[in-house]
Amino acid sequence: MTVYAYADSPLGAMLLVGREDDAGARRTGLVSLSVPGQKGAPVVQDGWRHAPGAFADVVAQLTAYFDGTLTRFDLPYADTGTDFQRRVWRALEDIPYGETVSYGQIAALVGATGAGVRAVGTAIGRNPLLVVRPCHRVIGADGALRGYAAGLDRKRLLLGLEGAAAADPSVVAGALVGTPSP
């Protein structure tokens, strides 16, 4: 059965979605963590059960992360996605707190070349576990903040929370804010 709950955060009300077995005793893990307005975010469906207690550990770890006392999540989650997506998502989990890497660096880690680099960006964009799998730590090769399903303002907020050098608010998608585009 699919269960869900909401958790307050600096990013907005996060929707947590998970699965449990029919007996309701064993959780198979977090399936999705999203925020309002996020591209591709799930919507609560008929038949889903509201179960805030099922996510107590998730909420506790999110709270500690946003308080600055947790730098790495340790949560059970349901592995979704294709084999390629799961390889990319595992690479995201290895990016240290407060550091950033480029899309090209992630592509190299998973052995993607040529058109595969674009597929890496697509896989990162489809990451169902916002914050927990730190796709916000992936930036452009030029240091610019690029593509974040929850919006660049939220990406900037998360990087700033972690003290990442790429949190510079003047750099977004390779252009200086306030400077006209060519």
From TrEMBL:
Domain of life: Bacteria
Top-level enzyme category: transferase
Active site positions: 135 (nucleophile)
Substrates-to-products reaction catalysed: a 4-O-methyl-thymidine in DNA + L-cysteinyl-[protein] = a thymidine in DNA + S-methyl-L-cysteinyl-[protein]; a 6-O-methyl-2'-deoxyguanosine in DNA + L-cysteinyl-[protein] = S-methyl-L-cysteinyl-[protein] + a 2'-deoxyguanosine in DNA
Compartments where located: Cytoplasm
Location of the Methylated-DNA-[protein]-cysteine S-methyltransferase DNA binding domain: 83-163
InterPro entries, alphabetized: MethylDNA_cys_MeTrfase_DNA-bd (IPR014048), MethylDNA_cys_MeTrfase_DNAb (IPR036217), MethylG_MeTrfase_N (IPR008332), MGMT (IPR023546), MGMT_N_sf (IPR036631), WH-like_DNA-bd_sf (IPR036388)
EC nos: 2.1.1.63
Residue ranges annotated for the Methylguanine DNA methyltransferase ribonuclease-like domain, each copy included: 3-76
GO cellular component, one term: cytoplasm
The entry's keywords: Cytoplasm, DNA damage, DNA repair, Methyltransferase, Transferase
GO biological process, one term: DNA alkylation repair
Gene3D superfamilies registered for this protein in UniProt: Methylated DNA-protein cysteine methyltransferase domain, Winged helix-like DNA-binding domain superfamily/Winged helix DNA-binding domain
Molecular function terms from GO: methylated-DNA-[protein]-cysteine S-methyltransferase activity
Annotated function: Involved in the cellular defense against the biological effects of O6-methylguanine (O6-MeG) and O4-methylthymine (O4-MeT) in DNA. Repairs the methylated nucleobase in DNA by stoichiometrically transferring the methyl group to a cysteine residue in the enzyme. This is a suicide reaction: the enzyme is irreversibly inactivated.
Extra facts: This enzyme catalyzes only one turnover and therefore is not strictly catalytic. According to one definition, an enzyme is a biocatalyst that acts repeatedly and over many reaction cycles.
Family: Belongs to the MGMT family.
HAMAP family tied to this protein: OGT (MF_00772)
Protein name per UniProt: Methylated-DNA--protein-cysteine methyltransferase
Gene source species: Streptomyces solincola
